[in-house]
Amino acid sequence: MFVDRQKLERDFLDEITKLGNLLDTLKVNYCVVGDWGLLAYNLKSKTINEAFILVEEKSKNEIVKILFKLGYTIYFMSNRIIKVKKFSSKGEILVVIQFIKEHEKNNYLLDMDERKIILPKYVFDKDVSEVKGNLKNVGGKGYFKLAPLEVIYFLKMNSKLPEDLADLDLIMGSGRLDIDELIKLFELNGWI
To answer: pTM of the entire structure?
Structure first.
């Protein structure tokens, strides 16, 4: 079956924006990372898989209610991750929500099984992507919070997936990566 990537991207951005608007209404800390975070920065990954959203752990109950309200099917759940899907006329929309918890007074801990990553508190309030003109049933305008580009880069590092390695080149080639902030992430995690 042929999938119109541009229309699927638009549907995805619509869904993330609806989710973002609801999370903001509930005052839940969240940010979009991964391939869809890159898309919001206008950097198109060769393969766009699921949306990957970091959410503050204390908001779990509210998140589950929101997902059902938006018509998602929860197909995987653990104490750290919820995976959901929803069918669109353009294809299947997949969203992975990863909960992160406060680690120290200015940091969060992201537990990804094979590694634990420390992220700065500003991960939730650095950038906002505004989406205009293509939203359905939410007034035609909305936004969602993005992780800083250096955090997206950092999370894609050490991946075994070839598409993640290609994304690192894409981010570097954009000239928009804040190297000083990236080095601070390395230091925060004791890598340098």
So the answer is: 0.83
